[in-house]
Structure formats: C-alpha cells, structure tokens
Description:
Elements: H1 5-29, E1 38-39, H2 41-48, H3 52-64, E2 68-71, E3 75-78, H4 83-106, H5 109-132, H6 135-153, H7 156-176, H8 183-198, H9 202-226
Antiparallel strand pairs: 1-3, 2-3
Helix pairs in contact: 1-3, 2-3, 4-6, 4-7, 4-8, 4-9, 5-6, 5-8, 6-7, 8-9
Amino acid sequence: MARSTARVDEERKGSLVDDAYAAMRSAILDASFAPGYQASEQEIALRLGMSRTPVHEAAIRLQEDGLVRVQPRRGILILALAPEDVREIYDVVIAIEGRAAEIIAEMAEPARLKAAAALDAATEKMAKAHADGDLPAWGQADGAFHSLLIEHARNRRMSRIAQTISDQLHRARMLTLNLRKGLEASVEEHRAIIRSILAGDPVAALNAARRHRIRARDELLPLLTSYGLKHL
C-alpha cells in the first residue's frame, strides 16, 4: 500500500531538520560558527544552503543541547563557554566516564574485548595524528575515544547526558589545542584505561579514567586563565 502524501511530507521534513541540525552542530563544533556569533535564521539558512524552516527546528534542538540560544526577533546566538562552564563540564565528565570505564571492565570478556579494540583503534589514530602534527585529527580521534567509552557502557541515560556535555567539551578542546602540552600524555592515559578494561579490573579502570580527565582539567583551566580566555 502506497504511503499517504502527508506521511511522505512529514518524513521529508524530518530529514531536512536532521540535515540542518547536523550541519549547524558541525559548524559550531569546528568553530565555523564561532562562540558569540549571532545571526538571523534566514542568514544561517543562506550560509548552509538550506531553507529557514528546518534551520528554525534545528536551532530549537541545539538550544536543548546547550549550544545556542534562540532569541525572538534577534536570531540565533552561538553560546560561549566561560572557564567556570568548562570546570562544571569536567565535573560531570569525570563522574560519567569513570563509571563508564568501570561498567565496561565489569562486562564479560567478549564485550570487554570488543570495547577495548574500538578504544585502541581511536587511541592509535591519536598517536598517529600526534606524530604527524595534525592537531585537528588528534582532536577528532580523542573525541571518538571518549564517545566510544560511553557507547560501550550501554547506559542510555548516561549517553544522553554525555552527548550534550561532550559537544561542549569538544568545542573547548578544539579551540585550545594549540595551547595544550599534554597531548602525548593523553595517549598513554587512554592506553592505561584500555589495559584496565582488558584485565577486567573495574577499580583500576575507574581510577584510570578519572585520573585522565582530572589531569586534562588541571592542564586546561590554568591555560584559560593565563591566556585571558574568558570565553570559548
């Protein structure tokens, strides 16, 4: 039986909104739409080569993600992150990712091996990017590692919380890559998390994941202060 015209139109609309959401989110995360950038829905639609309606719907979703603010009659504002925002984000990430590593290490061996293989692949991409001096590739691979850590914990609520937090933290990561010195340390810390998962040691996995994020936090926040970066 042929689908109704209304159903087809609804699916097309949903696809356009998804496309607009993905394009806007990508532009925000790679700073093409920089923090503090403000524009009308029509202007953003023109920049993306889209129509205004899906951009409007996508902006509402991005507002729920904490990436933009939709301002009536003033357009869409790309939200900036202050150092205190970054500190709060790390507080959440330290807790969630530590627990995620612990959960994975408690799993049966096949699940642990699968998770470890995925995490190792992302870590090796980081190592190669670091050796090549490719900072954007390093940042993408680092983000992939942390996304995989949450994904393999198989906790839907944790995933939903982590999605918003990880988008905001990824933006901070990409905007400060040139300032940070601990990129090689991150690779080794990721490998320590993987080893703990392979060993089936939940306590070691929890502690390794927490130490990694705490070290990154303690490196990043003073950088923001020393360079006078009040917003990201």
